[in-house]
Amino acid sequence: MSVSGTPSSSGASPSKLRVVMAQLDFLVGDIPGNTDLVIDATRRAAQEHQADIVVFPELCITGYPPEDLLLRPSLEVRVNEALERLKESGLGPAIVVGAPIRSGSLLYNAAVVIEKGAITGRYFKRFPPNYQVFDEKRYFAEGNDVLVMDICGVPVGITVCEDIWKDGPVEDAARAGARLILNLNASPFDTDKQARRKALVERKARENRVSIVYVNLVGGQDELVFDGGSMVVDHSGVLAAEVEQFREGLFPVDFLCEHHCQPVSQALPDAPSLEANVYQALVMGVRDYVNKNGFKSVVLGLSGGIDSAVTLAVAVDALGKDRVRAVMMPFRYTSSMSLEDAEAEAVALDVQYDVFSIEPMYDAFMATLAGPFEGTKPDTTEENLQARLRGVLLMSLSNKFGSLVLTTGNKSEMAVGYSTLYGDMAGGFDVLKDVPKTLVFKLAWYRNTLSPVIPERVITRPPSAELAPDQKDEDSLPGYDVLDQILNLYVERDFSADAIVAEGFLREDVDRVVRLVDINEYKRRQAPIGVRISERGFGKDRRYPITNRWKSGK
């Protein structure tokens, strides 16, 4: 291991240093556009904030995570072109940007320092993560060096994301003389992530007697949402500045650098409630997925139930009412209450609203199937046909008008397979895919505190798919308060069935839920992606084989 960087030209330090945290939203693969964003942000940071240093998120040049774009042969050429543009742009402040950099035969997740038209430092991330949603060892080698360099007369250490979670990089930079550490991040959201980040950065700063600037990405990328929450912690471990989560912008912090680099404290934002935080994550995830993929609008089935009601509210808050279309598709089992509530939701949010009965289509299908179905009793086949007819209608509207279909299934339903392939699972993005049903109820109450758009009885009445007379979800599932606890233990915390029973749950409930989770992996593989809000969502986080003979229990 070696220490690299430009040594300080003088023992004297300036009395004041202004660092701007560029908490911005970058688009994966748009290297020219991302480079434009860096240039524009740096110029604004200089003009509006008189920045000395501007710090950008991890891999901002490519966007994060670039995944197998990192394997493209032209990657190195495109990144080098971007760095040349940054060097030639006449930027005043020093900038620290994230980019994939090849050195020899190996590719590294790097931080690059550019000052006065030249690259003055490069740092290669030492701990590429390979857990949960992260797969960096597929692409990146591990760096070995420490980078402490003179930037504006201050000895500054550079680290990248996971490096701050491990022992070594911060400690080595502090021992090498760093008084300020800049940490570039692409840390995705989950429900208590910001609290864990703050505790970590505060501890690292306090133990190493060094101030830390933690800059995080903001924005949605497929199922991941990056919430920002950039922060500055002083050398004694005190939080001096924190940026609101889900807020894009440039955020300056002043440092007094006589003995320590002491940040000038700022007013801290209030900690959001769980419901507010999750709701913001869903809104940002939908907005960025729709806009970054070029969809004109979205369409969804509005059933009068709570899942579609929350999905509709999120869609309108993300995109505006003029880009959202809601469709009620009643059948003989649809209650008048559902019809009334769906219309009330559409009126409250002022979206385009259509009602298309699926009764004639159902009758036509059943007439066609009368021969092969002769002598059989009605079962889930007829129920699933209703859902599939609705899926056909929504996909037809999608094709005709260029609208993305938003599906409305929640995590509890996806876990146990309480959904229909090519029916209510037909669509491009599932807003509530990682939201347990019990949290859906809380989100509905929360959204109504902003403005009342969901009728109260939608939230309080027993959930039903309304695919059969007097049907209730709890006819075939444990109550959602019990179901969600079992699912949390099994799916997110990897408890065995026996261990869940030992927590006080009925063996009958546990065995039934675990079996349903296991046998429905094939459905989840075919489900649309959706916003990840937990530490372990279905998709990137949890990859179970469809064909297997693993016996649940121990």
Automatic annotation (TrEMBL):
Residue numbers binding L-glutamine: 131, 187, 193
Pfam families in alphabetical order: CN_hydrolase, NAD_synthase
Active-site residues annotated for this sequence: 58 (proton acceptor), 125 (for glutaminase activity), 161 (nucleophile)
Single Gene Ontology BP annotation: NAD+ biosynthetic process
E.C. code: 6.3.5.1
Catalytic activity: deamido-NAD(+) + L-glutamine + ATP + H2O = L-glutamate + AMP + diphosphate + NAD(+) + H(+)
Pathway: Cofactor biosynthesis; NAD(+) biosynthesis; NAD(+) from deamido-NAD(+) (L-Gln route): step 1/1
CDD domains attached to this UniProt entry: GAT_Gln-NAD-synth, NAD_synthase
Binding residues annotated for deamido-NAD(+), in chain numbering: 384, 413, 523
Organism placement in taxonomy: Bacteria, Pseudomonadati, Pseudomonadota, Gammaproteobacteria, Pseudomonadales
Function: Catalyzes the ATP-dependent amidation of deamido-NAD to form NAD. Uses L-glutamine as a nitrogen source.
Name of the protein in question: Glutamine-dependent NAD(+) synthetase
Assigned GO CC terms: cytoplasm
PROSITE patterns on file: CN_HYDROLASE
Signal peptide segment: none
UniProt similarity note: Belongs to the NAD synthetase family. In the C-terminal section; belongs to the NAD synthetase family.
